[in-house]
Amino acid sequence: MASVSEVPVGEGREFTVGDRIVAVFNLDGAFHAVDGICLHAGGPVAQGKVTGCVVTCPWHGWQYDVTTGKHCLTPRLALDRFPVRVVDDAVEVEV
Ligand code: FES
């Protein structure tokens, strides 16, 4: 799907997998994947600033834990999570 080098440490990148927009984050070499479309108004989650394990949507500031997909203030709201594995240099996401 993507190569490890496409997703720098501490950042996210957006990919299309099947019919889903997926945000992949690299937290110190551990990769996490969540739905790339913000639950608020459809903002690009992958383009948000990452602090620790929290990404802040660039449009209006909703924050999600990228390891769980859960909204930080309202955990019943959660982005879909997808299994990720790294095979050699490839990041593979199962949607
Ligand atoms: S679209 Fe993400 S916070 Fe509004």
SSE order, one letter for each helix or strand: EEEEEEEEEE
The assigned CATH architecture is 3-layer Sandwich
Average pLDDT figure: 97
Work out the radius of gyration.
12 Å
Strand content: 35-45%
Name the hetero compounds present. Answer: FE2/S2 (inorganic) cluster
Low-confidence segments: none
Biggest sheet, open or closed, and with what strands and sense? 4 strands, antiparallel
The structure class reads: mainly beta
Number of domains: 1
What is the name of the CATH class? Mainly Beta
Number of helices: 0
The CATH superfamily name is Rieske [2Fe-2S] iron-sulphur domain
The geometry reads as globular
List how many beta strands DSSP finds.
10
Helicity level, as a percent range? Answer: under 10%
Account of the 3D structure:
By secondary structure, this protein is mainly beta. It is built from no helices and 10 strands. It has a single domain, classed as Rieske Iron-sulfur Protein, CATH 2.102.10.10. It is globular, with a radius of gyration of 12 Å. FE2/S2 (inorganic) cluster (FES) binds next to loops.
